[in-house]
């Protein structure tokens, strides 16, 4: 728990980020979790994965922005990515995941409106490319704002997906609200270090909350997206799908690029729909540290590559 908190703190350190981001991608643990720095890397990896029968969601890694032009640049990067994915004939199997803080939500005064406008442009580009968008979920303080933006976007783009985090105590109720026809909900444990007032702090409690949330989603009319590498939860999802007579393809599993790749392929062979979350871009530092917080064993591997670079 202490290592996790320290690493999540390090994910916000600018000095560490500047040092680590300058390391060559291929020589570090980074290339295991991140497609590469360029859009062409994301398109290449998405092509490889779809060639193996996996679906993909691509995340353009970008920091929280406090500058309007930076937010516009991120939105343009997504529009350009969607055009490239369409040109490579990878849509609709490849969609994009978007973080509202990278689209300007933290800008003073009308940050949320700016993020909504940027997100709308991305949704339009996705619709033109014949694919969808999922809004990533961030710290608990931003959940209401993300769900507000989701509601606005879904009026014009009904297939925009949301993410809910089982770590948060409010999530079971949010699942009930969103388990409606046409609603795509990605359920994850939650990557942020949240206070006890709003979150379960014990791993067992988070897992039990995850199961309760899955029950709501599978019983509902929406499209559950089960985002976890946890073998027990994957198994329980399978039983719930059977209990609710859900056909394969009326829900999906999601896992991160580089994590449990054999399990991803095993599920595909079993006829399940599996989507891999593929991040790319030069600003990979905070993403990588969040992954290391979940698996500190990989930290030793990273430190060895830093020492030898
Ligand atoms: P954990 O408890 O971390 O792991 C459970 C088990 O999975 C481990 O015991 C092990 O058996 C296996 N495992 C885990 N990591 C590894 C590894 N590196 N190698 C091998 N086995 C491993 N979080 C957010 O807060 N917001 C988001 O928008 C968001 N989007 C996500 C999208 C996707 C597709 C996924 C998969 C996750 C997303 N997350 C997001 C992250 C999520 O919240 C968790 O932090 C992350 O998935 C780790 O939780 P876990 O469910 O895999 O369980």
UniProtKB/TrEMBL annotation:
Give me the reactions it catalyses.
L-proline + a quinone = (S)-1-pyrroline-5-carboxylate + a quinol + H(+)
In its keyword annotation, does this UniProt entry include Flavoprotein? yes
Boundaries of each Proline dehydrogenase domain copy?
A: 46-301
Q: Which residues bind FAD?
A: 137, 165, 189-191, 228-229
Which keywords appear in this protein's UniProt record, sorted alphabetically?
A: FAD, Flavoprotein, Nucleotide-binding, Oxidoreductase, Proline metabolism
Q: Name one GO molecular function term.
A: nucleotide binding
Query: What pathway is this protein a component of?
Result: Amino-acid degradation; L-proline degradation into L-glutamate; L-glutamate from L-proline: step 1/2
Cofactor comment text: Binds 1 FAD per subunit.
Could you say which enzyme class this protein belongs to?
Answer: oxidoreductase
Membrane-spanning residues where?
A: none
Any one Gene Ontology biological process term? L-proline catabolic process to L-glutamate
Q: Which Gene3D superfamilies match?
A: 3.20.20.220
List required co-factors: FAD
Its Enzyme Commission number(s) read 1.5.5.2
PANTHER family per UniProt = PROLINE DEHYDROGENASE 1, MITOCHONDRIAL (PTHR13914:SF0), PROLINE OXIDASE (PTHR13914)
Query: Per its record, how is this protein called by name?
Result: proline dehydrogenase
């Amino acid at each position: 728990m202490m290592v996790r908190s320290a690493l999540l703190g390090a994910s916000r350190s600018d000095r560490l980020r500047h040092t680590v981001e300058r390391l060559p991608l291929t020589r570090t643990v980074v290339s295991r979790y991140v497609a590469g720095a360029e859009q062409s890397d994301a398109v290449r990896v998405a092509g490889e994965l779809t060639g193996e029968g996996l679906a993909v969601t691509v995340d353009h890694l970008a920091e929280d922005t406090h500058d309007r032009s930076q937010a516009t640049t991120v939105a343009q990067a997504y529009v350009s990515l969607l055009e490239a994915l369409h040109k490579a004939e990878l849509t609709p199997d490849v969609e994009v995941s978007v973080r509202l803080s990278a689209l300007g939500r933290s800008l003073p005064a009308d940050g949320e409106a700016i993020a909504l406008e940027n997100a709308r442009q991305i949704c339009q580009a996705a619709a033109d490319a014949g694919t969808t968008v999922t809004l990533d979920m961030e710290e608990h303080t931003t959940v209401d704002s993300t769900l507000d933006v989701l509601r606005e976007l879904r009026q014009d783009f009904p297939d925009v997906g949301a993410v809910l985090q089982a770590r948060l105590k409010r999530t079971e109720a949010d699942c009930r609200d969103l388990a409606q026809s046409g609603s795509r909900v990605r359920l994850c444990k939650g990557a942020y270090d949240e206070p006890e007032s709003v979150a379960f702090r014990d791993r067992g409690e988070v897992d039990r909350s995850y199961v309760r949330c899955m029950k709501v989603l599978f019983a509902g009319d929406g499209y559950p997206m089960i985002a976890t590498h946890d073998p027990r939860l994957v198994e329980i999802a399978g039983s719930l799908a059977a209990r609710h007579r859900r056909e394969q393809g009326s829900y999906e599993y999601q896992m991160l690029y580089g994590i449990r790749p054999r399990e991803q392929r095993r599920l595909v062979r079993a006829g399940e729909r599996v989507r891999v979350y593929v991040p790319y871009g030069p600003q990979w530092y905070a993403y990588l540290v969040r992954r290391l917080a979940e698996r500190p064993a990989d930290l030793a591997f990273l430190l060895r590559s830093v020492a030898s670079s």
